[in-house]
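Narrative progress, year one. The postdoctoral researcher (J.K.) led the effort to move from monomer predictions toward full complexes, under supervision of the PI. The following entry was the first complex the group processed end to end, covering 547 residues in total.
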Amino acid sequence: MKKIVCRCEDITEEDIIKAIDEGYTDLEELRKKLRIGMGPCQGRVCIQLVIRIIEDYTGKKLSKVSYPNPRPPIIPVSLGTLASDKHEKKG
Amino acid sequence: MFGFEGDTIASALHAGEVKTFSTSLVYNNPRGFFCGIGKCSSCLMRVNDIPNVRTCIAPLKENIHVEIQNRLPDLPKASFEQIPIESLSFDVLTIGAGPAGLCAAIEAAQKGAQVLIVDENQKVGGQLIKQTHKFFGSKQEKAGTRGVDIAKELENELNILKSQGKINVMLDSTVIGYYESKKNHLFGVVKRNDYKSQFLEINCKAAIIAVGAMENMILFPNNDLPGVYGAGAVQTLMNVYGVKPGKNVLMIGAGNVGLIVAYQLLQSGINVDRVVEAAPRIGGYHVHAAKLRRCGVPIYTSHSIKEVVGKEKVEGAVIIKLDKNWQPISSSETIVDCDTVCLAVGLTPSTRILSQINAEMEIIPEAGGYVALHDESMQTSVKNIFVCGDSSGIEEASTAMIEGKIAGISSALSIGVTKDKENLLKYIDELKLLRAGPFGDKPRAAKKIINKLVKI
């Protein structure tokens, strides 16, 4: 029975607490270590949960934290779609 | 399998009692959908060999092949059909066709702007189309009307402007990114058609971001089992597609959403075992709570969910009593018999496009989380980028509509297609009036901070 924080990458609360114990106490560090927020939903479910875990576990207030910047494409898109040839400009 | 026209793949699967859509990446856990509105990625499946199709918003078509997406999938066999990229220009791009986006697009078009409105769904209306209850608030903002009827009224207004060539509507399409551009603002849009997609570049003088919000998740063991759904997903299944999400529901959260959805479940002939609320008192309006109680549904305040029981799907849940400090009291557990756990524990503004645009963002707890700062005219720190509705701070559909109107007029004023400011001030006053009651305390506080901090 696991408490899932990031559904895309299957990361549990336990994984995050373990990483905090290893010294990764920043949202950006945790993201790079665990891939939280890097799956297809780009952190829409997990980021607020991760912030709460860091705050509860370290007692550190993260009110000034900046969220990881989601990069395009923000939904799954096939590479072929993005690599298509261009029409002549109109409109 | 079969379904009805207008069904999504996920709604048809639910109607056929299929609730597991994929297996998870590390633990191989069964996964069903969660948010039901295309935001959370839990519903991704392989359709006609194309992986990662969001089945909760993908339309159901005849003779399609839908497969469970495994932890380690094969490479797609689907052949790639090149659809050329198109470039289009508009005065105003509105992203999202919910209450805020529709009002914004209509208002901007009426002021003379050439408008494009883009939405991910097959229909306009956003979350209004699942709101079968009557609205509260002021008469001007359609109090006493059902959400679904408000959506129809707005759609009619939209269609008139569409037939006059003032608004273009692009459905089943998603804005996937913001790109650097020398002139104006440049967005990338992916338009889907039969699970194939086309990329479009949209150049616009102003953009209005009205992309709504995302259902909150909470942490408890087995919170990812199929059968743990967001309240919006449950409402979507039963009110939009006529599909019962389960037989016996445990509702978490006694805010307005939790109370209203619990009542709608009863109306659909689904048993609601109880409503559980972590706070010591009910958060929503008294009338909604009273309706539920009259139907014999108990509301347990100072209680929380401890865990969900089940292997492949929800088979029950354990709830626990909380003390004054919101800490669980030992040995106060109760086992609840249910096949669905519905989470109505608040919303978080959707802001991904806004962070890409580099609009100044801040965590404002009263607004539901990370939001783009904006002024009274709904403009963000980036010139000609406007925000309205839940993505500017969690509130209600009635305020979202006025915010939309304000953003619509402001965008038209800002790009110079109109000079008429009259209605702008009227709407700003209306908004203040709507937030004057006790339930407006939180948004009023949130907007005060948001308006104060912004630097344009």
